[in-house]
Q: What sequence folds into this?
């Protein structure tokens, strides 16, 4: 069956450390993978997009990797801050999907001061 | 740009009543999406439009749900009659796809929290 999985439990990280979130999928062949941040009571906010032929993408303190062999994406936040606390969602963008995204359930990240 | 604008932010209604949710996408975006989010099911795509034309409404739960996009700057999602199981947060999102290439993600509105009692 097709599925996309993110850490279901909250991830607690000490301020200043690197937070790493995982997105695993099975039986999909995404052309792109997107990461979003969602704060309580708000809509998801787009962070990064990585293509299937890209191994890594960076934006300021954020880094995303995409391994199509392992069917996994890792999302890293370096020098984490309490303001980074939020739920992070990954979404698969399938080639020929008519622009529909397949969403993970999200991982809640808590950065402790 | 003020982003994707949704109204109302909160809606409480009685079962059986009609509910209309509104969305103004970002100017220049050619795709508009309506999503529903619940704790149990996460984000679910209900329907999406390309250049104001509905492309895929297979996610609409049943005939009680309908959506329109009369022009590039306005869309509505209507539930008639509403039921308690429709209680959720409804998001509108828009995006722009450059000649079929993904260069941008989606921009979401702040959502409408619907409670049907």
A:
């Amino acid at each position: 069956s097709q599925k996309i999985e993110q850490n279901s439990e909250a991830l607690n990280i000490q301020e200043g450390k690197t937070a790493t979130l995982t997105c695993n999928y099975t039986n999909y062949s995404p052309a792109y993978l997107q990461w979003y941040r969602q704060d309580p009571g708000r809509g998801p906010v787009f962070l990064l997009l990585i293509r299937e032929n890209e191994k890594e993408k960076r934006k300021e303190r954020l880094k995303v990797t995409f391994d199509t062999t392992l069917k996994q994406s890792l999302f890293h936040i370096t020098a984490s801050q309490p303001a980074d606390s939020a739920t992070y969602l990954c979404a698969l963008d399938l080639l020929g999907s008519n622009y529909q995204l397949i969403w993970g359930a999200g991982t809640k990240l808590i950065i402790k001061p | 740009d003020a982003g994707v604008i949704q109204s109302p932010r909160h809606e409480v209604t009685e079962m059986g009543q009609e509910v209309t949710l509104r969305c103004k996408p970002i100017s220049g975006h050619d795709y508009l999406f309506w999503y529903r989010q619940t704790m149990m099911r996460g984000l679910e795509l209900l329907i999406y439009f390309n250049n104001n034309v509905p492309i895929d409404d297979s996610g609409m739960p049943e005939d009680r749900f309908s959506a329109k996009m009369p022009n590039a700057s306005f869309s509505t999602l209507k539930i008639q009659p509403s039921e308690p199981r429709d209680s959720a947060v409804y998001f509108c999102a828009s995006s722009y796809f450059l000649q079929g290439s993904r260069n941008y993600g989606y921009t979401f509105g702040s959502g409408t929290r619907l409670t049907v009692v």
